[in-house]
Amino acid sequence: MRFSQLYAPTLREEPADAEIPSQSLLQRAGFIRKVAAGIYTYLPLARKTLLKIENIVREEMNKIGAQEILMPIIQPAELWEKSGRWDDYGPEMMKLKDRHERDFTLGPTHEELVTELIKNELTSYKQLPISLYQIANKYRDEIRPRFGVLRAREFIMKDAYSFHDSWESLDETYLKFKEAYSKIMERVGLRYTVIEASSGAIGGSESHEFVAFANTGESNILYCDCGYAGSDERVPYKGEYRIYDEEEKSLELVFTPNVKTVEQVAQFLNVEVRRIVKSLIFKGREGFVMALVPGDKELNFEKLKAYLNDQSLQMALPEEILEKFGVPIGFLGPVGLEDVRIIADHGLKYMRNFIVGGMKKDYHYVNVNHGRDFKIQEWTDLIIVEPGDPCPICGKPLKGEKGIELGHIFKLGTKYSETMNVKYMDSEGKLKPFIMGCYGWGVSRTLGAAVEQLHDDNGIIWPVSIAPFEVVITVVGRGNERQFSEKLYKYLLEQGVDVLIDDREVSPGVKFKDADLIGFPLRVTVGRAFKNGKVEIKKRTGEINLVDASEGKIFEMIGNLLKK
Amino acid sequence: MRFSQLYAPTLREEPADAEIPSQSLLQRAGFIRKVAAGIYTYLPLARKTLLKIENIVREEMNKIGAQEILMPIIQPAELWEKSGRWDDYGPEMMKLKDRHERDFTLGPTHEELVTELIKNELTSYKQLPISLYQIANKYRDEIRPRFGVLRAREFIMKDAYSFHDSWESLDETYLKFKEAYSKIMERVGLRYTVIEASSGAIGGSESHEFVAFANTGESNILYCDCGYAGSDERVPYKGEYRIYDEEEKSLELVFTPNVKTVEQVAQFLNVEVRRIVKSLIFKGREGFVMALVPGDKELNFEKLKAYLNDQSLQMALPEEILEKFGVPIGFLGPVGLEDVRIIADHGLKYMRNFIVGGMKKDYHYVNVNHGRDFKIQEWTDLIIVEPGDPCPICGKPLKGEKGIELGHIFKLGTKYSETMNVKYMDSEGKLKPFIMGCYGWGVSRTLGAAVEQLHDDNGIIWPVSIAPFEVVITVVGRGNERQFSEKLYKYLLEQGVDVLIDDREVSPGVKFKDADLIGFPLRVTVGRAFKNGKVEIKKRTGEINLVDASEGKIFEMIGNLLKK
Hints:
The structure is a homodimer.
Chain A: H1 21-28, E1 32-36, E2 39-42, H2 44-63, E3 67-68, E4 74-76, H3 77-83, H4 85-88, E5 94-97, E6 103-106, H5 111-118, E7 130-139, E8 154-164, H6 167-188, E9 192-196, E10 207-213, E11 219-223, E12 229-231, E13 252-255, H7 262-269, E14 277-284, E15 287-294, H8 301-308, E16 314-315, H9 318-325, E17 341-345, E18 354-357, E19 363-368, E20 378-380, E21 399-413, H10 415-419, E22 423-425, E23 431-433, E24 435-442, H11 443-453, E25 455-456, E26 459-460, E27 471-475, H12 479-494, E28 499-502, H13 508-518, E29 522-526, E30 534-539, E31 544-548, H14 551-563
Parallel strand pairs in A: 3-7, 15-17, 17-20, 27-28, 27-29
Antiparallel strand pairs in A: 1-2, 4-6, 5-6, 7-8, 8-24, 9-10, 10-21, 11-12, 11-21, 13-19, 14-15, 14-16, 18-19, 21-24, 22-23, 25-26, 29-30, 30-31
Helix pairs in contact in A: 1-11, 2-6, 2-11
C-alpha cells in the first residue's frame, strides 16, 4: 500500500473529548472517527488491525474445537421474555419495534438466542460437549459512553457458549477456553494477568477475567510473584491487624467544629489517622446499614455487597442521612445508634480508645471502645487490599497495577437452560437441563487496550502481530534514494511483508512524525546513509540498525527484528 | 473437522415455510436456522461458506485499491435529515431511540455516513480518487420477508463508495469495480450476466446489475450470443410490427356476456388474440392514464413508469375504476373515453379492425380503428420483450433466463455531496461537490443464489471455492477401512486440504445422503473397493474415480479433481 493513497487522515491537534491516550491517539493517528457518543467508524488502519485481532481470536477458538456461527444482531423480545431478562436488563438494552410493532433488541449478549438455537437440535448427551462462538457487533446503551472504543455503545465481541452434560465436562472446556484466552493475550502481544472473578451474586460459579495492564485501566489488579492475581474488589485481606494493647479510657464527646474528613479529625485532635474509625451508611434491600473500617483503610464496596448478598446496595445520600439520623455526613458514628445493622471490619477487633462521629453536628466521640460503648455483632473483611499488603496465597507483598478487562469466562450452569426449559436426554433416558459456560472477548476493546498499554509521547507502539502494517518505508529525498525505496517496496511485497511505502509529497519530518504517531513496528529509511551504501531500520521502540542497501539483506534484517 | 463433532443438524423433512429450493436446502442441510421472519442464524457450515465469500470479495476489492473500513450499523438520524432521506426512505427503514430519546436507524445503506465521514478530511483534488468499502450487516424491514437469505431483513452486504473530481475519474473507477465484480462472480463459481440498469428516475446515470442465473430468480434476463444482456424490464423491443393490410370495417358494439380476459374475448368472438387491444388503467401523480398494448403482448410497467417519469405510478384498483368510469374491469377501452391521457405501444400503429372493451358491462367494440374511432397522441415502446424477440444490438433471437441480482454498481454523481454540502477544492482553488460512485454486493445473498443455481434433487452442489468443506471422507465399515480413513484424514489435513471426516456412528446410507444434501464437491469413500486396494472418489456432480489406496495418490487425484 502507498501512503499517498491510504485513507488515514492524521490530526495535529488533540481531540476535544479525549480523556485517555487511546482515545486521543486512535483519532489523531487516523484509526477511528466518532459518529455519535460511543459510536465509531473504523478507518482502514483500524480495520486492518481489527481483522488481525479477529483472526487471532478465530484461530485460537478453532484450535480448541469451538465452531464459528453468526447469530442475528436483532433479537426478538419473546426470547428475552422467556429468560425473564426483557424487563430486567435495564436501560442499557437498546430496543426497537419493526413495522408490524413487534419488539426486538439489539443484542447486548446472546445467551437467550444460542440456548433457543440448540433447542430440539441438541437432544442427546452423545452430542455433548459442544462450543459455539461468533464474532459480531454488540450493543450496550451506556448512560455515559467514554474512553473511546474501550467503553462504546456499539462494539465488536467474540462471544462463545458451551453445552455440557456434567460439571466435569464444563470444567474441561472451561480450562481449554482459559488456555486459549491466555494464548490470545500472548499473540496480540499484551502484558496481562488472569484474575479470579467469582461473584457471589450468580451462585458462586467459577469465573475469570483476562486483564491487559494499562495505567488508565478501570480495574485495579493486585498480583504476586507466586502467580496469584486478583482485582482489588475481591482480594481478601490476609495482613495482620494492629493490636492496641492499652487500657480503656473514658468516653468523651469533643467539640470539633467543621472538622469532617478523617484527615481533618486526625489533625484537629493531633492523633494518627488509624486512631479513627470510618462510619459509612448504605441503603439496601433491607434499609440502612452502617459499615465500620479503620481510618487508614478504604471500605470495599464489593465485599460489603457480597457479604450482604444485596446487589441493590448503594451509598446513602447526604439528604437521606440527614433526614433519617438528623446528622450531617462527617459526624456519623455507632455510639447511640439504634435499629441499624452494624457490620465491622475485622481490624476493629483489636482497636481501643478510637474516635468516631458524635452523631451530632460538629462533635466527635474520643476514647470509644466497642463492647463498652456500642455493640458489634457482625465481623467480616471489609477493606480494599493495597499493594504491599500480603498475598493471600504466599504472604509476600502484593504488587499493584491497573488494567483493562478484555476477556471474561464464566461457568453459567443451568441458569438459562432451566428458565428457558432447554433439555437433553442423559444416558438413562432422563431429560436434564444443559450445563452451560459462556466466554466473552472484547475485540474492538483489544484495539483500545493495546494503545493504552503501548504508547509513548510520540504515538502508538503496535505489537507486530496486530500492527496495521509491520513496516513503513520512508522515502526521503529523490533520485537514487527514491528509486531504491520503490525497488525495495516491490521486493518486500513479493516476499509477503506487510509493508507501507510513505511516498507522500511532504517533508521527511512530517513522515517521521506520522510513522511514530501511527506506530509501525519498523521504519526503513533510505536517506542520508544511502550514499555510503546503508539503509536505516528503526524499531518504533527506539533501536536503530544500519544495514547494507541490498533488498535481500534488508529483508533478512526485517525478519529478525520482527521476530524479536 | 470431525462430523461427529460438527454442529450441522440436518433435517429429513421439508421446512414448512420454504418457497424455493435454497430456503429448504439451507435449512435441511444444517446451514441456517430462522430466528424470526427474515432473520437467520448462520450455523458453522454457512459461516464457513460466508467467510470464503467475504474473503473473495475482500481480495477483489483490495486488488483494485479500495480500502476496507467499518462504519457503525446504528446511524444518527441527523445525517439522514441532512440528505432528506429520514422521512423519505419509508417503512423499510428500521428506527430506534436511545436512552436519551435520540433517533437512530439501523443502516439500510451508508451513503450519508460515508459522505459525512470524508467531510473536512478529504479536502483537495490531490487526495482523489479514493474508494472505501466495508463488509457488514444491513437492515431492510421488508413488509413480507421471503425466500430465506435472498430477501431477508438482516443481511450481509459489501458496500463501497468512491469519490472523484471528474466524471472521467469516476468512469475509470466504475470500470475497475465492474471488472472486479465479474471476477467475484467467476471466483464464487456462478454462471452470471451483467445487465445495464440505467434508471431514468435517478438522472440517467450509468448503472449495472450483476445477476446470477437461477430458475427461481426474481429478475428475467434476456441475452444474446453477441454479448448483449438486459432485464426484461428494460430491454427495448426492436422486433417488427405486424401490418394489418385491410380496409376499415364499421364499428360495432357487441354483447359479450361475462367475457373479460383477452383469451375469453378471442374465443367468444372466434378471432386471434392479437386482434384484441389490451386497455389498462393506471393511477399516478397526474391522475388516471390508459395504456394500450397488442393482445398478444404484456405491458411493461417499468417502461411505462420511465416514459411518464412517475415512480408513484400504480395499477388502478377495480373499485377505483368502477367509481371513475362506471365500468367493471375487463370492459375498458379507449372509444368514447374523455379526459384520460392515452399512451399506446408502437405495435398499435399498424393494427386495423381491432377489438377493445365497450366501456359498458358485458360489451366489446369490434372493428375499432384509431384515428377514426379515437385518437392516440402518444406512442412509445410499452411491451415486455420475450425470448425469441430480436436482440436490440445484433437482431438475433434473444434467449431468456431468470436470475438473482447479487451486485449493483451505480454512478451516483453529486446527489449526496450536494445535499449534504460536502466539497473539495479543485486545482484552481474552487470548492466543488464530490462526484461519487456506489457499489453493492450481497454477501449473504450469494450463499442463497449459489444454492438456487447449483442443486439437484439430492441437495446442494457447492462450487469448490465456497464449499464449506472441499472434501468429505466417508468412513464405511470398521477395521482396516476405518484405520485407513483416519490415516488419510490426518494426511490430507497436513497437506492443507479443507477436509471433513464423517466418523459418525450412523449407516453408510445416511452418510451418503447427508454428503449429497450438504453438497461437498468431493466424497472419498474407503469402502468395498478397499480390499482390492482401491478408494472411490466421487464428484458431487456424479463422476466416480477409483484410485489406489495410497495417501499420496489420493491427494494428487483430489488436487486434479478440485481444479477442474
